[in-house]
Amino acid sequence: MLILLPFLSPTLLAVLFAVVAGIMVYISFDELMPMAERWGHHHLSIYGVTAGMLIMALVL
What is the residue extent of each domain of the chain? Predict the structure, then answer.
């Protein structure tokens, strides 16, 4: 934290949050969706991911 604190700005923090969110979306679609399809709950998983994104967007 002491090393990164001088470089930390609101813009950099926003970019880092966007990158982390993109990674999480990638993981959920790349890893979890094929597994949900194997178990037969593919559409339910898509609804859950979409609802989660909508809730996070509304909270922000």
Answer: 27-60
